[in-house]
Design a protein that fits this description.
Elements: E1 5-9, E2 21-28, H1 32-38, H2 41-44, E3 48-51, E4 57-59, E5 63-70, E6 75-80, E7 83-89, H3 94-103, H4 122-125, E8 128-129, E9 132-133, E10 138-145, E11 150-155, H5 156-159, E12 176-186, H6 198-204, H7 212-226, E13 234-238, E14 244-245, H8 247-256, E15 262-264, E16 270-272, H9 274-280, E17 287-288, E18 291-294, E19 297-303, H10 309-327, E20 336-338
Parallel strand pairs: 2-5, 3-5, 4-20
Antiparallel strand pairs: 1-2, 6-7, 7-12, 8-9, 10-11, 10-12, 13-19, 14-16, 15-16, 17-18, 18-19
Length: about 350
Amino acid sequence: MLQIQENVSLKNFNTFGVDASARYFVEISHPDELTELFLDPQWKTGKTLILGGGSNMLLVDDFDGLVIRINIRGIEHRISHNDVFVEAGAGEVWNDLVNYCVVRGYAGLENLSLIPGSVGASPVQNIGAYGVELQEVFHTCRAFDVATCTFKTFNKEDCRFGYRDSIFKNELKDKYIITSVKFTLSLIPKLNLSYGAIEQELANRGISAPTVQDVSKVVAHIRVSKLPDPSTIGNAGSFFKNPVISPEQFNTIQSAFPGVVHYPAANGNVKLAAGWLIEQCGWKGKVVGHTGTWKNQALVLVNHGGATGREVYQFSSEIVDSVYAKFGVTLHREVNIIS
C-alpha cells in the first residue's frame, strides 16, 4: 500500500538545498506502484512533480500538489558481439551507472562521469558533457502513461532529442513517467578526447593510449576542480545552457571580443561557453545575499546557506540581463524552474 505523506520538506530532495515543501509526497520503488497511484482519480487529475535526484531543478515556491519521488533501482546488462546493452532503473544514481559500466570496460558513458542526478532524468534533459550527449548511447526507455495507466517503450527517434532537450520536456511534459532506460555501449572504445581539457589532463598524466577508465578519471578530476560538491554547498551544476548562435552573430561578437570561447555546433552554427560570457560580465565568484556564482566556474549558481528559490531565480535573471547587455546573447536556464 502506497504511503502518501503530507506537508513534506523537500530540502533534502533537491541539490540546491532550497527549503520548499510538498503538499503531498510519495516514493515509488516499483513501476507497478505508479498504476496503483494513478488509478486514484485524486492523483490522475491533480498537480504532480516527478522527482529523481533533484539535481536539475530550482524550487521557487512550495509545491501545492503531489511530489512523486522515483526510487526504482536495478542495473542489468547483456552482451551481443561487441555491443553491450545496459538497462537501469530510473531511480539509480547516474554516476553509479557510469561506474558500473566503466569498471567493466563498457564504453560510451565515460565522458558523462560525475554528472549529478538520476538515470530517469537523463533522457528528459538529454544530458551531456565534454563533447558527448546521452542521445549518442541511448537505446530505449520505458515510461508510464499517466492518462491510460499503461507502459510504452520510446526509441531514440520517439524522444526527439535536442540540445538539453527532448519530447519529455515539451509535448509529453507531465504525461509520461520514465521507469527505466536502456543504453547501447561498446566493448571497443571510440574515445572522445577533443572537448574541454581532457587531452591536456591526459598529457599531464603521461597517458598516451587512454582507456575508458582513464577518461572517466580525468573527466571526474576536471569536474571536481571546477564544480562544487552539492553535499557541501547547494547547487544544481550548470545553471545555463551554452548558447548556440549563427555564424554571422558569432563573427560580430568575435570581432569585438577576440578571445571568445566557442565550439562548432550543428548546421554551421557556433556554441559559446556560457561560463565565459558570465565571467566577462564580472559575475564569477560574486556573492549577492545568500546566493552567488561559484568561485571556480561562473556557470554554476550556489546557495551559500538559507537562499530561497526566489532569491536564486532573481539572481539568475540579473545575470541573463547582464550578458545580453554586453554581448547581445540571451542565456537560457538549463535547470527546471518549479513553481
